[in-house]
Amino acid sequence: MAKRGTTRRDFLKTGAAGCGALALSQLDFARGLVARAEAGELTAQELYELGKVENTLNTVCLNCNTGCGIKVKILDGVAAKIDGNPYSPWTMNPHLPMATELGATAKVDGAICPKGQAGHQGAYDPYRITRVLKRIGKRGEGKWKSVPFDQAIDEIVKGGKLFADVPGEEQREVAGLASMYALRDPKVFEEMAADIAKLRKKKLTVAEFKAKHAANLDKLIDPDHPDFGPRNNQFVYMWGRKKGGRSDFSKRFYEAFGTANAHGHTTVCQGSLYFACKAMSEQYAGDGFKDGQKFYWQADLENSEYVVFVGANLFDANYGPPNRTPRITQRLVDGALKIAVLDPRFSKLASKGGPSAWIPVKPGTDAAFAMGMTRWILENQRFDSKFLANANKAAAAADKEATWSNGPWLVKLGKDGEPGGFLRASEIGLKAKEVRKDKDGKESDFEWLVVLKDGKPVAFDPNDEKEAVEGDLFVDAELPAEQAGTVRVKSSLQIMREAAQQKTLAEYAAICGIEPKVIEAVAREFTSHGKKAAIDMHRGPAQHTNGFYNISSLMNLNLLVGNFDWAGGMIAASTWNADGTKTDKQPFSFKKLTPKTGKPFGLSIIRHDAKYEESTIFEGAKYPAKRNWWPLSSDVYEEILPSIADAYPYGAKAVFSYMAAPTYALPAGQTNVEALTDLEKLPLYFASDIVVGPTSMYADYVFPDLHYLERWELHGSHPNMPVKVQPVRQPVIASPNEVVKVFGEEQPISYEAVWLALADRLGLPGFGKDGFGPGQDLRRPEDLYLRMVANVAFDGKEPVADASAEDLRVFAESRRHLPKSVFDQARWEAVCGAAWPKVVTVLTRGGRFDTQEASYKGDHVANKYGKLINLYQEKTAKVKDAFTGKHYLGLARYVPQVDTLGREPTGLIEGFDLHLITQRDVRMTKSRTITQSYLTSSLPENPILVSSVDAKRLGLKTGSKVKVVSATNPDGLWDLKNGTKKPMVGTVQVTETIRPGIVTFTLGHGHWATGASDAQIDGMLVKGDPRRAAGVHANAAMWIDPHLKNTCFIDKVGGSVSFYDTRVRLVRV
Amino acid sequence: MNQDKLITMQEDLRRALAKPAEQRRWAMLIDVRKCVGCHACTVGCASENKLPPKLWYRPVFEYEQGKFPAVTRTFLPRPCMQCDKPPCVAACPVKGKDGATWKETKGAANGLVVINYAKCIGCAQCVPACPYQARTIDPGTNHSDGTPAPQAYEAAAAFEYGTKRQRLGGSQPIGNARKCHFCVHRLQEGQLPMCISTCVGRAGYFGDESDPQSLIAKVKKANKIQILKAPKGTGPRVYYVANEKLEVIYG
């Protein structure tokens, strides 16, 4: 049908095109469009061109971080419509196998959310920038001129009096990146890094270090504090939303440049979820724990029978609506799945759970609920004792379990009975430590661990695959020590039980503000479904000062039923490998294709992966530290700019931000403006952004980036997706950006073009000609990405199939509208070589997706986590709080919300009667969807939701205008430090869907940049769009920590920012 | 192996298209129990049909009932009901064989209430006539109004009623009455209406309800069906399944 229609259409094209009179009339219907389509009689006006395979391109959405496969429908080179890519398991359940012919999928649309549907409005945004902007006014003043790309790059690299035409900056000398690229010798990097490791362990003094490295001390930030590292670290790179591919691109740069300062934004999302799970996934190796993964688990919803959702807003957010929703709606209606929802809000999810599903706990009390459940489960013997008895891999395997816990392992107690590290068998003379070789032949000590089995100590190796060891679950004992005396030990489970028993169920319920019987009912139901029950959590419990322990407490419940890797239980994400290090069939191993450069070392400016006590500034300062240290977390977004403002531990000289809007996204984001407007503390700031955004508005230079429909990324997966995947984002439309020449290649200005040009000017190895080795250049973005796609195609037991002749035809035809500066097929083929036909298979399908059938194996998921999961966290217990000097708890429990010094914020609460939280609406992502009018038309402004009880008390009605004020922002203003103070005024909506005492607003509205306000570019006034300023963004009311003074409240352990702890007052305006 | 309902319904649709048009009965069913209020249908429809700001063919209304903590929330999508006795048609002054709006009896659109933009005079008499507020006059506004420049996607053609048409300047359908048409341009291509194909809750059903093998016919048979504003006697082709009494909520 399509073929004949096409022929006829082509015939008619010239004849009918000018004849718009072929408008519809009743006659057309009478003749029957279907019949005429079949007869090939449709005219050019009638043919539905969006249904043609040659007009559709599969790629990946990025209007939020879910990563749904999208099918972009192109009309005359324009992205006219976006729907779901049916090859993607995000948009169909089950999804179409990759073997399905392209032609058969052109008219099959998968389901995506409204943001995905509106995505092209972000590409066709009248406020996008297309040329490099350089500021000609003060930072944040909104006065710009366009400058040539090469000029901007040269200035950033060389430095100088770059802002001589800005009043007040005539004489300001700016250091360029070249001056920060101080240390270059890989050998010196290695030697210094090794000595700094010794310095941290007090095996070397600063004086000894200085003597040894006298020749290179000028390369250091501060020779008296060599642990700060080289001056290279004074270049700080930070990013917001970045996925695979672009991550690899930047990593290649900053590792070659040698800066330890490359920081993401994880903690503004759900850092404490990631880092609690990192702590739980630390693996015992040798004599300690390492290789914890920055990741988390979610429930396998399509097979669960009972799920307790905690702060997981899955019909509005939660990675995300298109994939999780269809897996449960029918099952909820059929009664196959029951849910409970812990949330102060009656979320859309809670509304689908039936009468008793909603449990409106007070914000931040999630761990109290979890510990109440824990107590009930332990005391009523409702846990999986078989699973919990397994001490090692062999024991787990014998029970057909893929994971095991440290529940029965013995923990040594300190003088005051406080739990410390796990008992090593050598400490009680049970088994001596031994020397073992790892797979690379490197030797290290191995210490055996201990359980009691029937009251007798047994030494074991957690990773032993042969000798199964089980242990007694609840142990409180004294064992004779190796030397003299005794060692007091308890099993992890015993410590857990004692922690849970610190409060009664009634006390836990009182903390949560609910009835005790609710905790019991949920605990009973949770333990009534075997492995098909799960506690599924997201941002809600994580974004508190107690987030790390909220998450750990909740996640530990999953260990009590041992549901990990089971269908219907908790699962981990699984992706096809892209860096070529997985199998020897993959054509491009980046390990081999990356030249050896110095590995960055020294303290990062956010002090992650480092202990305060091991630093050279500890002795002079002691407790409390000026700012926090983060041995357990990384990508601590709220630390980056405030640390620069404090020059702690050292000053920065240049910042590059990518897709970053910390001023908007962070709680008390206005505190970040301080560093951004301080020319002394932050002498040079350049940004990559597609618009002048709420943070890039302060930049010295803004480089236009590509919209996600114009660029590459390998999006990866999320732990709610049982299918092994690797979605591939790729250019589907041309970019409006200025085309420039980098490494001799014409390309639109992009994020990658910035890195490439900087690398070119700095002479960084691994870029440009022969960047990947002889004959393999890195001159353009896809020089990297095509190789990654080839690796994805060849990962696994079997590679993907070769593209058919039809695939190859469609591949080329559907890209006919792309300019050569974006798509040059001959060049692409040359990059991929023999892998090309498989690369085309992956690109045409929008990624690589395993089949639904291959995603389960019997009662288990096929893509298993398959390792130890820590109930007790030894590594956490060994870290000291940098403010109090006290050890962190190794076993999770409820802890109250406190400031950095550990004080409950009573002084900030007084006089502020409402507890502020936030939420997402499915129509908005935080900072990038305001540009899209389909979305703002549907949700023109975001209300402040107020309970009818509070509304009555305060005399508020739906429609009342109120200002949000707090103890740390009594005026309720966003002070942008550019003369603008935007009040946090919103419109009340009175509702029954929120717990009295709580107020909330959805994130995404109330902008002041991103086209929301006027700007001056090249002397022309660009008027802002008031629709983008509508609504309220109340983050600036969120508490500022009284000790830090320029940062919001934080979770000291897991890194999360506090989104849900502030108390506010609503002032009528 | 199960298949996604979207695939099942598309198979139903293609089977229906193979039948003579007169033997088909297009219908839509919305299982409100599964609607999660995501508004993907609303926005997907706007994008598919190039609707101007705040003109929706298929809004989703949100309701809450009860008192804390015994609350319910309902999300109610409201497409055109494609009434068998459409008051809007009765209200249209452009009558006759070649009128502006009518209940189609032939072809792919058989059973749907359609508008001929070329004949519509924009008098707006149909707008208040519809008890569901399903009709709106296209005011000629654009999403890029008040911004630095018009955008290419907005000038791109839509395919409503199977006609490729750019909405530019004062051209049709600007000034015309506009409403949901079950994406007849997609139906004739064997594709589901946009609201159905992008329903993340799989709450929407579409097909030929006269085919007992079709999913919509099965779901209709298995559940208690509600229609909106039954006393008006409009004979809607849109059915609802809900725990709530929709007449109470929707009025």
Share of β-strand residues of chain A:
15-25%
C-alpha geometry of chain A: globular
Q: Main beta sheet of chain B: strand number and arrangement?
A: 3 strands, mixed
Largest contact between protein chains? A-B, 94 and 85 residues
Radius of gyration of chain B from CA coordinates:
18 Å
Structural class computed from helices and strand pairing of chain B: alpha+beta
Enumerate the strands of the largest sheet of chain A in spatial order, edge to edge or round the barrel. Answer: 9-8-27-28-29-4-5-45-46
Distance between the termini of chain A: 64 Å
Helix content of chain A: 25-40%
**pLDDT averaged over residues of chain B:** 96
Could you describe the 3D structure shown?
The complex is a heterodimer of chains A (1069) and B (251). Chain A is an alpha/beta fold and 1069 residues long. With 251 residues, chain B is an alpha+beta fold. In chain B, 22% of the residues lie in helices and 16% in strands. Chain B has 9 helices and 9 strands. Chain B has a 3-stranded mixed beta sheet. A two-stranded antiparallel ribbon of chain B has the order 2-3. In chain B, strands 4-5 form a two-stranded antiparallel ribbon. The longest helix of chain B has 13 residues, at 5-17. The N and C termini of chain B lie far apart (42 Å). The mean pLDDT of chain B is 96. The interface between A and B is large, with 94 and 85 residues.
Describe, in short, the structure shown.
The complex is a heterodimer of chains A (1069) and B (251). By secondary structure, chain A is α/β, with parallel strands linked by helices.
Structural descriptors:
heterodimer; A: 1069 residues; alpha/beta; disordered N terminus; B: alpha+beta; three-stranded mixed sheet; 9 helices; globular
Summarize the SSE layout with pairings.
The complex is a heterodimer of chains A (1069) and B (251).
Chain A: H1 2-17, H2 26-31, H3 33-38, E1 56-60, E2 69-75, E3 78-84, H4 102-105, H5 114-118, H6 120-123, E4 132-135, E5 143-147, H7 149-158, E6 159-160, E7 174-175, H8 177-180, H9 186-200, H10 206-212, E8 235-239, H11 246-257, E9 262-263, H12 266-269, H13 271-280, E10 283-285, E11 288-290, E12 298-299, E13 306-310, H14 321-324, H15 329-334, E14 338-342, H16 348-351, E15 358-359, H17 366-379, H18 385-389, H19 393-398, E16 404-405, E17 410-413, E18 419-422, E19 434-437, E20 443-446, E21 449-453, E22 456-460, E23 476-480, E24 486-491, H20 492-500, H21 505-512, H22 516-526, E25 533-537, H23 539-542, H24 547-561, E26 570-571, H25 590-593, H26 618-621, H27 637-646, E27 654-658, H28 662-665, H29 673-676, E28 684-689, E29 701-704, E30 713-714, E31 725-729, E32 739-742, E33 745-748, H30 751-762, H31 781-794, H32 805-813, H33 825-832, H34 836-845, E34 847-849, E35 856-857, E36 860-861, E37 868-869, H35 874-877, H36 906-909, E38 914-919, H37 933-938, E39 944-947, H38 948-954, E40 961-966, E41 973-975, E42 981-983, ...
Parallel strand pairs in A: 5-45, 8-9, 8-27, 13-14, 13-25, 14-15, 16-37, 27-28, 28-29, 38-44, 39-43
Antiparallel strand pairs in A: 1-2, 2-3, 4-5, 4-29, 6-7, 10-11, 12-26, 17-18, 17-24, 19-20, 21-22, 23-24, 30-31, 31-34, 32-33, 35-36, 38-47, 39-44, 40-43, 40-47, 41-42, 45-46
Helix pairs in contact in A: 7-30, 11-30, 13-24, 17-20, 17-21, 17-22, 17-24, 21-22, 31-34, 32-34
Chain B: H1 5-17, E1 26-31, H2 40-48, E2 60-67, E3 70-77, H3 87-91, E4 101-103, E5 113-115, H4 126-129, E6 136-137, H5 152-155, E7 177-178, H6 184-187, H7 194-197, E8 204-208, H8 215-222, E9 238-241, H9 246-250
Parallel strand pairs in B: 1-9
Antiparallel strand pairs in B: 1-8, 2-3, 4-5, 6-7
